[in-house]
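Today's session is about reading a structure prediction critically. Students often jump straight to the picture, but the first step is always the sequence itself: look for stretches that repeat, for charged clusters, for runs of hydrophobic residues. Only then move on to the predicted structure, which in these notes is written as discrete structure tokens rather than atom positions. Here is the chain we will use throughout the hour.
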Amino acid sequence: MQHLLHNIKNKSRGISVDILYYRCAKAYRLFEFESFMHALTLVQPRLGPYLQEVEYERWSRAYSEVLRYNIMTTNISECINVILIKERELPIIALAEEMRCLLDPASNTIYTVFNGDNNGVIDLQAQQLPCTHAMIAIRHKRGDVYEFYSDYYSSACWKATYAGVVYPLPHQGDWVVLNKVRENKVLPPDIRSTSGHRRECQIPSIGETVQRHKCSHCRPVGHHYNTCQNLIPLHQNQASALAQFPSSGPSQTI
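Below is the predicted structure for this chain, in token form.
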């Protein structure tokens, strides 16, 4: 369309026919096209035979055999370049992902999250308990995180699980045990305990911080109240009171 307009300008130097040409090209109905085409040939008679020789189907919307909608250009890449002005500065993988999200209508729920060597493709429709990659995708689309959790993790479902009455166990002498249950021999697990003192501290996971305990007696960090072996310091008021009133008792002289 633009190339044809350039040829028309060369054939009609000094006469502006741009507006009439665009109206002919963008007219939807045939009678509108014939009206604008008649006005164009009156302004420049040389253009009538030339445009008819080019064939109306190649540049006119009214004679087009396909649905062109409102995009009257064959260079669709220029339109994509305008949309991807900022994205063109990204690396090739990130640029391909942006173009996929632009062209794929199903990409509203499927995201590729780049996290160094730990990249991942996330489908938000299949989420039951969103991971860190899914959290980033939900934040990107400005959605509510709780909408992507399964109902099994809701407080209402948890309350419904224990809504019934949980009866306590009766005395062991009142238990009714079937014979086939009595015949089963349950062996202890085949686990070999390692030598040395048994570990009492928990091994922290990746990204988990170790919370150090603080003694409520002597205030240092590293042990509990029950395992404290330090002397409890007196309060400042108690120390001053003992200094003013020494304990009464027989004095010893050497």
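Discussion point for the tutorial: DSSP finds ten helices and two strands in the chain.
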